[in-house]
Amino acid sequence: xxxxxxxxxxxANYDSDAKKIIMLGRQGERKGSYDVLKIxxxxxxxxxxxxxxxxxxxxxxxxxxxxIQNVTLPGWLDASKRDEVLSGAVLHLLIxxxxxxxMSILETMARGxxxxxxxxGGIPDAIxxxxxxxxxxxxDLQQIxxxxxxxxxxxxxxxxxxxxxxxxxxxxxxxxSFLMSGMLFMMLPFIKKKGMK
Length: 197
Description:
The protein is of the alpha/beta class. It has helices at 33-39, 56-66, 82-87, 103-110, 123-126, 141-153, 155-173, 175-196; strands at 20-24, 47-51, 71-75, 89-94, 115-118, 133-136. Helix 1 (33-39) links the parallel strand 1 (20-24) and strand 2 (47-51). Helix 7 packs across helix 8. The radius of gyration is 18 Å and the shape is globular. The two termini are 29 Å apart.
């Protein structure tokens, strides 16, 4: 299996005191967006920003109906604003019910942004629970709330997870590590042949 690879910025620029929690990708029921609407009001000091398309109209109606003050839906994240947005995020949420290994997880980890994600698809290949992020069961709102409380109340934990998240991508999911593993893969037949002599 060939993993996804991402470019790792020279500097992480992670702000452990930032007040924005972001979610990147198509928004909707499958992505756990409605679970975010249930969780967000419990953390009024933080802004939950859900970037992407999908069930925006339905989500907007639900936000208005429940009078949720700290969730916004700005649409797709424009490439020109990407650096600014990511540098102001304390956490990336991806609490989907069905996934592979989303690039958004690797891209945020590369910038030192810890992830709270569901333990599905290829996500556990990148995120190790409690080491470089958090893994939860899809739909387990209590577990999500517990981890958010822990994460947001422990600055040293945020810093530690940030460093480990970036290190994980540097070592296993960066373009450089991808190219290196590809070179080794291509050389393997020659190494085996030489070893057989």
